[in-house]
Amino acid sequence: MNEQLTHTDLAPDLRVSRVVTGLWQIADMERDQGSVDLEQAASSMTAYTDASLTTFDMADHYGSAEDIAGIFASGYAGGRNVRMLTKWVPEPGGSSRETVRQAVQRSLDRLRTDCLDLLQYHAWNYADPTYLDDLFHLQALKDEGLIRHLGLTNFDTDHLGIVLASGIEIVSNQVCFSLLDQRASGDMARLCEDRGVKLLAFGTLAGGFLTERWLGKPEPAMDDLSTWSQMKYKRYIDTAGGWAPFQQLLTAVKATADRHGVSMANIASRYILEQPAVGAVIIGARLGQSEHVDNNRQLLHFALDDNDRETIGAALETLEAVPGDCGDEYRKPPYLTASGDLSHHLESLPAPFPTKAGGDGRTLALSGTIWEDLAGFARAIRKGNRILVSGTTATHGDRVIGGRDAAAQMHFVIDKIDGALQSLGGSLEQVVRTRVFVRNIGDWEPVTRAHGRRFGNIRPANTLVQADLVGTDYLVEVEAEAIVGDE
Questions:
Q1: Angle between helices 264-273 and 306-316 (to 10 degrees)
Q2: Is residue 371 a contact partner of residue 388, using CB atoms and an 8 Å limit?
Q3: What angle do the packed helices 65-75 and 25-33 form, to 10 degrees?
Q4: Which one, out of 3, 120, 268, 469, has a CA that is 20 to 30 A from the CA of 460?
Q5: Cα(61)–Cα(40) distance, rounded to whole angstroms?
Q6: What does DSSP assign to residue 55?
Q7: How far is CA 324 from CA 91, 253, 316, 408, 410, in A?
């Protein structure tokens, strides 16, 4: 089969299958069975590469997935052009340069290679700017040759924009994208197309819900669901309007599948594969147990037509939009995770900035920028139920975040304000006043739009003026006030 139809280039030297085999179920298998025969699991991967499905996606926390992939690559790949995509999902709170190197080396050792094809990074809390330190450390290891390319996983549009504008070289963003969850089809897809970033879409089968198994079936109770994926994606179904409109969607998918003589799973994944900016879809596999190699390969042998898109589009219009942006399910309510919160992912989130007691009953939050020590001020002060946040620029350590992109700088500034508020027991939702200062009045629109994206549902009192800011690299400065609960 023509490789142009079966593969795509994330970068000139990184060609991957348009159907990527996901290995996240290794962790489920090990949890259920206690252990997995690594050699047997590795040998079962040959069925995928024999079908030209030559790319595998894994992570440091997918049980033994990296070890299995390493055994396969070193003993079974047989000269095939196999690509291994992995992830690093660190604990929140930031890592040292040495800790980042150790994490990369651990994946290199498990995968039995001297260079990672693609390392994808996940951040838990954008208000904690140490995630950018991790990315700058990873960029340095890429420059050193330990990583071929960097990607992100579960980043939203605004923060993908911050990372790109800050000079970190990103080729992909792995996000949830399915018929149930269309968040990636708007601003995210437009940014990716503009910046040459590919989307790697997971969840296209919604944990198996978008298949024949659930067509015409009664709604299951959450307690009756047998896998973490089913529990997770049942929450998506509920958020998208419930079981009745979901069944209408399944009926439309079934009609389309019958026209093409393929499975409903093929239609669900093919629809996403044809969306703008999507480089590949990721379909999970239980290696050696429930392989669907031929079915996965089949979705590369046909294309949807206008009639198909009209049929499916009409069903999609009956659904409610999943709120927010990509990755919000891991950062804010409603948590669309298997447990409905972050309890099976994290024990706690550390405060973004250190705090200390000040005089007169006040508490100070310090972000550690050079300006705070130089001028003798705190990033924010809480006294009673009021939090006052100082004029804040896109400074992080000795860096200016966001480059010459005013919107990127504005989003990072709001993140820092959010970090200061979180550290003092508040949140952006409690902000009652913002004051925005722009260096160039021509930047008013991107800055204002960024303010609107972050505060649109909060609506604080606001002022924007032009000012000659200190530091020529700073395009915007913001101060804020919040009232936290009652006096």
A1: 100
A2: no
A3: 110
A4: 469
A5: 20
A6: E
A7: 24, 25, 17, 18, 19
Reply yes or no: is the peptide bond before residue 334 cis, omega within 30 of 0. Answer: yes
Question: Per-residue DSSP letters for 236-274?
Answer: HHHHTT-HHHHHHHHHHHHHHHHHHTS-HHHHHHHHHHT
The answer to pTM > 0.85 is yes
Segment 87-91 shows an average pLDDT of: 96
Please name the residues in contact with 294: beta carbons below 8 A apart, sequence gap of 6 or more.
51
**What are the tokens at 431?**
């902000």
DSSP for 65-85, please give it.
Answer: HHHHHHHHHHHT-TT---EEE
Structure tokens, 195: 């910046």
How far is residue 437's CA from residue 249's CA, in Å, rounded to a whole number? Answer: 48
Q: Is 16 left (phi over 0), alpha (psi -120 to 50) or beta?
A: beta
Beta strands in 310-452 (DSSP E): 355-357, 363-365, 380-383, 386-392, 395-396, 399-400, 431-438
Residue 283 and residue 269 in contact, taking contact as beta carbons nearer than 8 Å: yes
CB 349 within 8 A of CB 125: yes
Q: For residue range 149-203, what is the model confidence (pLDDT) as tens digits?
A: 999 999 999 999 999 999 999 999 999 999 999 999 999 999 999 999 999 999 9
